[in-house]
Design a protein that fits this description.
Strand order of the largest sheet: 3-2-1-4-5-6-7
Shape: globular
Number of helices: 8
Distance between the termini: 34 Å
Structural class: alpha/beta
Largest sheet: 7 strands, parallel
Number of domains: 1
Order of helices and strands: EHEHEHEHHEHEHHE
CATH class: Alpha Beta
Length: 252
Amino acid sequence: MIMPGTVAVITGGGKGVGAGIARVLCAAGVRACIGYHSSEDLAQKTLAGILDKGGEAFLFKADVSDRAQVRAMIEAAAEKYGRIDALINNAAMQPNKFIREYDAASFKWLWNINIGGYWLAAQAALPYLKRSECPRIVNISSIHGKRPARFDAGYAMTKAAISMFTREAAIEFAAYGITVNCIDLGGCKIEGKTGKFPFRVRWPKETREHGAGWLRFCMPEDVGGLVAYLISPEARMMIGSGIRLDGGAMLV
């Protein structure tokens, strides 16, 4: 059970997976700073839905690749709620480019968001997490960091880097009682996919239509449920873990 009064910062929380995480956490009593950057209309819709159901949250616009903006977001959450207990690193981009299509600028842009944003947010939140009774960091990653595909090696590389960042941070931050874990996410039903290729998964017909979650797209709220556990006191033994949430996609 999530500790009463828990404060969470959720990057990329205005839409998609981040919005589902925000909805689940706020329904459980978490007070949330919902970070967003480009999709203000969807972020406002997410916030309105949370507030209508009695949740407590606010929006903060920030480019996670910019250290000053990330620091301002973290400080806004701490100032508003007096503490920070959980950081949910979720903001990411998936251009879906072939290796030959990346130039130096686009590769640097992708890296600075997908892994640099996690790094900057963890640095900024660390002083506040040190003072929490139940300090948690959850990094949203992807099974594409473990399994190669025919599209977007750049994206896959950043997701693989998140796995190692999670382990290294778990070791370093253990001195402060902070647990750090990541979720390796498979296909998730959201408003739309970034990049030029449609998201396609070829699953055997005999398994596609059977079983509780077997080889299905997960919903953003499924991710939120797992995050809720990881930021709870009961997850104190989850340290540096990578948890696969993919409906069995890695099995085929």
